[in-house]
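Q: I have 180 residues here and want to know how they pack in 3D. Can you give me a structure?
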Amino acid sequence: MVRWKLSSKQWDALDELRFSTRDAKVFRNATIILLSAAGNSKPQIACQLGCSLSTVDNARRAYRQRGMEGLIPRTSPGRPSRATPEYREALCAAVKTPPQTLGYGFSVWSLARLGQHLKQKTGIMLSEDQLGRVLRAEGYSYQRPKHTMKGKRDESAYQRARRQLKALKKKRWTPTPTKS
């Protein structure tokens, strides 16, 4: 069993890192090293932090190999986003522009319409889910528009019909006898 020894300077640096970060993984990794130095076993640490034994091993190995830098996760795995900075710029410009001023026959953007517009402008097509995530990351919120007839109907006829319907609802309905 490897005995972990930390100087008071190292302990303070790890503690400072733990409480200055907003990243849960960095906090967890620094805590693993501190608990290791406090004499806790690998299973104890994994149980206390709710992580796997391999996570404890990985954090310890990274700290041994790269020091404090090893506790900060490297760039996330996976393919880089297709939403390039140019795409995001075109997205922001499109969202701020009413579709009718761009020659479209509709007045509200939907994710599908916005995606098609951006595909024409940038050549990049994202799924509606991904486009929604990019919109949120850029600080926009979206929701389904409420379609009403307000402004497209004869308001006086509408109000008259509402009053008539209300009057009909107040009357008691009595069935009329039918002749058999």
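Q: Anything worth noting?
A: Residues 155-170 form the longest helix (16 residues). Residues 8-71 form one domain.
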